[in-house]
Amino acid sequence: MSKPHEFTLGVEVEVVTSAQETVCGRVFAHDSTSQVVVLSVAPPASPSGSEDVLQQRGDRHSYRLLNTSAIASARVVDATVQVEDLPAPTLNAEQIDRREAIAVRQAYEESQRIGINVTLEAQQLFNQLCKTYVNVACSRVG
Asked: In Å, what is the CA distance from 73 to each residue of 14, 54, 58, 94?
């Protein structure tokens, strides 16, 4: 791996950062646009007796986010591709619909507070009054 931006998903790499920190892990995600690589690393060592707590919480995965511009060097440790198959979260369609309806209603209410043919200062004053008083409305005169 000659350039830090050439990461293959699932490959185990060893990365040395510009701060001379060495990080080993499998490439979980890589985004060249935002210059970020996510490594799946071994969970940190836990004090004796706390392994049960980690298993109960489901902390079997640890991830490191690294800025690719801060990577001094990177080398492939194991070229065998192993992509983690994590289950996708389930979506609650009713909750999504409720949140959408609330957002649409709020956007409509905010649009009704925009004055027509008013100065910027008058609109700002009205906006501040709306924060103070709950039932403030403007009449549409156009």
From this structure: 8, 32, 32, 48
Cα–Cα distances (Å) from 104 to 34, 92, 113, 114, in that order, read 31, 19, 15, 16
The contacts of residue 82 (CB under 8 Å, 6+ apart) are 10, 12, 26
- Work out the number of other CB atoms within 10 angstroms of the CB of residue 108: 9
Predicted confidence at residue 2, as pLDDT, reads: 43
Tell me how far apart the alpha carbons of residues 3 and 56 are, in angstroms, rounded to a whole number. Answer: 40
Higher-pLDDT residue of 134 and 109 is: 109
Q: State both tokens at 34.
A: 């935002």
Q: Letter for the amino acid at 113?
A: R
